[in-house]
Each structure stands twice: as C-alpha cells, then as structure tokens.
Design goal:
heterodimer, A: 533 residues, mainly alpha, globular, B: 38 residues, 1 helix
C-alpha cells in the first residue's frame, strides 16, 4: 500500500503546472496561489495609490480644486479599505503561501483546495467594493471604520460594502486557518517549533490574531446590516442601542489588525538583516516571545483609539499604560535587529536597504504612537493629521517597505534570475525620500490643528500640504520602478540556489527558480542548518 | 521517507475543526454581546 502510494507520489511530483487560464483558476499549488495573491495585492496597491493621489491632488492647495467633497470622502474610505484589506494583507498572505511551505520543509499548504478558495474570494470581494463607485449615492464615504450612525447614511452601496467586508474576512480566516494547520502539522521532522524561521513564527502568531479578530469585524458589520434592514437597534440610540458599542467592537478588531499588518513585516526583516549582516539573528527566541507578547497586548489596548468618546479615568489609565507597555517587546525587537547588525559584515543590497529603512522609519511611527497613547495629549491629537502621519509611518515605510524588501529578497528564488540591482536601489532611494516628504510634514500639520478627512483647509496649512502632495506624487511614480523591476525580473543573470552569500533556511536549499513541487520527501532541518555553518 | 509514509490527515482535520470553532465562537460571541447590551 505504501509502495503504491509512493509510486503515485512519484508520478505526481513529475507533472508540471496545468496549461492556460485553468492553471490559475483551479490551482492548488502554494507557489501559484502565492503568486496570485502577490499580483492581486500589487494591482490593489496601485488602485489604492491612485485614490491617494486624488486625495493629495485635492489637498495640494487650499480650496476645492478637483473633486466634490463627498467624492473626497469616498476616496479616503476606499483608499483605506483597499490598502488594508486588498494590498497589505493579501501581500503578506502571498508571501506566506510562497515561503512557509519552503521554510518548514512541507510539500504544500495543508488545505490546498481551501487555499484556492481563500484567494479567489478576494477578487470577487473587491469587484463588489469597487463597483460601489458607480452606484447611486456613490461608494461608502464614512471612513474605513464604518462608524454608525454615519455609515447608515451610505446610499445603495451599503449592503455591498457589508457583503464585501464579509468576503474579505472569510478569505482572511480561511487563509489563517490554512497557515496555522500547515505550520502545526506539516513541518519537516527535525523542525521543532522554536527552530522555525522568524517569518514562520510571526505568521503563526498573526494567523491566531486573524482567527480571533476577523470574526469580530464580521459580527460588527452583521449588526450594522441588521440595524439598517431588519429593524434591530444594536447601535441606534433612538432604539435603545449604543453607537459607542460599535466603536468598542470595531477597535477590538482594529487594533490587533494593526499588528496583523506589522508582525509578518517583523518576520521579513528578521530574515533579511541576518542574511546581509552575515550573522545569525540575535536573540531568536526572545524575538518569538516579544512577538507573542505584542500579540497578547494588542487585545487589551483597543480603547486608546477612542479616548475622546469619554470613559472613566481608570479606563483611560488602563488603556494608556497597556498601550505604552507595547513599546517594551517592540524595543526588544529593534534592539535585536541592531544587535544582529553589530559587527556584522554588512552589505547594502536592495532588500537590506528597505529593511534598514524599515527599522528606522517604523521606529518613528512607533514613537508617535507612544505620544498618541498619552490620554490627555491624545485628546488634542485626536482626528488630526498627526494621527495620519503616525499610522502612515507604521504602514508605508513599515509594512510596505517590508513587503518591498521581501519581494527583492525572494524574487531570485521565485524567478531564477537576479533582478536589476541598480533599478532596485533607485526604487529604494526615491521611495525613501518621497515617503518622508509625504508623511513627515503631516506631523506638523496635525500639531498645528489640521483635522483629518477634510477636502479643504485654511491657508496656514498650505505649505506643508503642498510638500506632502509633491511627495505623494513622487512616491507613486517611484513605484513604477518596481513594476519595471518585475517586468525585467527574468532578464538578469541566473540566480544560484542560495542566491545570497549567507542566507539561512530550507528555502535556499531548493533550486532557483523553486520547482513546481518541492519537499515531497521531507528534508532534515538539522542537517540543512549544519550545511550553512 | 516519502510523503506517503506520513498520514497527517487526522491531525490536519482536528486542528482545522478547532480553529473553525474558535472563529465561529468569536463571531457569534460578539453578536451575543451586542444582543445582551442592546
């Protein structure tokens, strides 16, 4: 019986991908699905980016120039929803699909057919969401937080918004289940948990966060739906409901969501910095505990997003100090990255440049987060451009830079060719300059009192807004260099199996490009590690 | 050792069922909070 199974296995291993569109529609291969996720997220990155440019064009000078204020609100809402759920999250799931089986020595994801479903739900969800732009009343315009009662004033788009959010949540939950089941059940025999690479560890923790909080968002929007169409009053004050309860439930989802978007970024950076420092990661186990600690704390800080709704002093103190506590495990991570580089033989290829910028610029976002955690100060900063500056520093030179770093780091493994290093470095430097030109002035705008989500502003804010808009245009154009790198990715020199000088991990033991089927025979993780000494 | 030697189906099924149950508990649990509070 085992022999027959092994024979079947042998036959299976030798077939390549299916031909034509059917390969992509019906694929259960983790590499194909990873590629689909990554390409989808890139498209969404440009769609969301185009909306950002509409916002920044309108804000370039005072007065109303290009768009109706209502459309401006639709742009801010759709930009956020698309970037969060369509660009950053699917991009990290794409990386997880591609790399986790390779890193743990598994032949594929544990639930490959569900993997196919998880991906193909996404284009449907975003087609529905984007279609609302053409509906009577336009797209949702109440912000990505969908606070009632404002969101209930959305026109025909409302049920489509709710349905698309449900689909995005379903996709995320299915993806998260797949990742956890894969990591817990499909590791190579010698790969015990604390031996797993940091990218796998951070994704394991992220997947638990997803399973805990995406259903909470789904529950919240289900209640919005029943309030609108089925006569309930969960959040309607007139019917005895409580709109502030929505904010509590939303942010119980929303704050861990922030870590869902940053923990895999920590994992990526923890893979790249040791490679280009030619040293093992400093404090691997402490990194695992720090990420777990951050994940736990993310569940008990949600109300720092809503200090201004009014809460007892004890509540303010609890959420303020719990939030500040997150700086401790985050500091452990920053320290470990710096300690990894300390006395390392560092080189500065594109993935390393993006990772270094990540460490420096994400820390700026972390510090402004600490400022926002101070309850009395937050009452002043709340709903100002200071908040916009803060979370964009965390998400753009944070999550997006880590995604870029990951793409450059693993691209030769995916394509079998080296990308254009000069184009990569140009992409990095233009991105790094323009991202700061875009978001740093927003700190000053916020501290000077400019509110978020407005299409017009007093002339006192004109100079910094002009700078931010020029920066945004430059950042957007810089991303075209990345497209050029991708389009020419197969024209470079052949990549070796190890690609870089000192990479660690099982993914570097398979050929470049990675074959369609890998690790049909489980590798010996310990032996592979020895070979890199 | 080949993949055919290891049968992970039962542990995969068990982990999946547990995780689906956890997700469902969070979904219905928070709606229950809404019902009790409203």
């Amino acid at each position: 019986m085992v022999t027959a199974a092994a024979e079947l296995e042998k036959d299976h291993d030798h077939h390549g991908p299916a031909k034509g569109i059917g390969r992509w529609l019906f694929t259960t291969n983790h590499k194909d699905i990873g590629t689909l996720y990554l390409l989808f997220s890139l498209v969404m990155f440009f769609v969301g980016g185009a909306m950002a440019l509409v916002i920044r064009s309108e804000l370039m000078t005072p007065g109303l120039q290009f768009v109706h204020p209502e459309f401006f609100n639709q742009m801010t809402t759709m930009h956020a929803l698309i970037m969060v759920f369509g660009a950053v999250m699917p991009a990290f799931v794409g990386l997880a699909n591609w790399m986790i089986p390779l890193m743990i020595g598994a032949p594929d994801m544990a639930l490959p057919r569900m993997n196919n479903w998880s991906f193909w739900i996404l284009p449907v969800a975003f087609s529905i969401l984007l279609s609302t732009l053409f509906m009577p009343g336009g797209a949702p315009a109440s912000g990505w937080t969908m606070y009632p009662p404002l969101v209930l004033q959305t026109g025909d788009a409302f049920p489509f918004l709710i349905f698309s959010v449900h689909l995005m949540g379903l996709s995320s939950i299915m993806g998260a289940i797949n990742i956890i089941v894969t990591i817990l059940n499909m590791r190579a025999p010698d790969m015990w948990l604390l031996k797993m690479p940091m990218f796998v560890w951070t994704w394991l923790i992220t997947a638990y966060l997803l399973i805990a909080v995406m259903p909470v968002l789904a529950g919240a929007v289900t209640m919005l739906l029943t309030d609108q169409f089925f006569g309930t009053s969960f959040f309607l004050a007139a019917g005895g409901g409580d709109p502030v309860m929505f904010q509590h439930i939303f942010w119980f989802f929303g704050h861990p969501e922030v870590y869902i978007m940053i923990l895999p970024a920590f994992g990526v950076v923890s893979e790249i910095i040791p490679t280009f420092s030619r040293k093992p990661l400093f404090g691997h186990d402490s990194m695992v505990y720090a990420a777990s600690c951050i994940a736990f704390l993310s569940f008990i800080v949600w109300a720092h997003h809503m200090f201004t709704v009014g809460m007892p002093l004890s509540g303010q103190l609890f959420f303020m100090f719990a939030t500040m506590l997150i700086a401790v495990p985050t500091g452990v991570k920053i320290f470990n990255w710096v300690a990894t580089m300390w006395r390392g033989a560092m080189t500065f290829e594109t993935p390393m440049l993006f990772s270094l910028a990540f460490v420096f610029l994400f820390t700026i976002g972390g510090f402004s987060g600490l400022m926002l955690a101070v309850a009395p100060a937050d009452i002043q900063y709340h709903d100002s451009y200071f908040v916009v500056a803060h979370f964009h520093y965390v998400l753009v030179p944070g999550s997006i830079f880590a995604l870029m770093a990951a793409a450059y780091f693993w691209l030769p493994k995916w394509t079998g060719h080296m990308y254009s290093e000069s184009a990569g470095r140009l992409h990095f430097w233009t991105s790094a300059i323009f991202v700061n030109l875009t978001f740093f002035p927003m700190h000053f705008l916020g501290l000077a009192g400019m509110p978020r989500r407005i299409p017009d502003y007093p002339t006192q804010f004109a100079d910094f807004n002009w700078m931010a808009s020029v920066g945004a245009l430059g950042f957007g154009l810089s991303q075209l260099i990345f497209v050029y790198v991708l389009l020419t990715a197969k024209k470079g020199a052949r990549a070796t199996d190890r690609v870089w000088e000192a990479p660690r991990g099982l993914e570097w033991t398979v050929p470049s490009p990675a074959p369609y089927h890998t690790f049909t025979t489980p590798p010996k993780a310990r032996i592979e590690e020895e070979s890199f000494k | 050792m080949t993949r055919g030697d290891i049968d992970r189906r039962s542990s995969v099924r068990r982990t999946t069922i547990i995780l689906v149950a956890v997700a469902a508990a969070f979904y219905f649990g928070f709606i229950l909070i809404g019902v009790l509070r409203a």
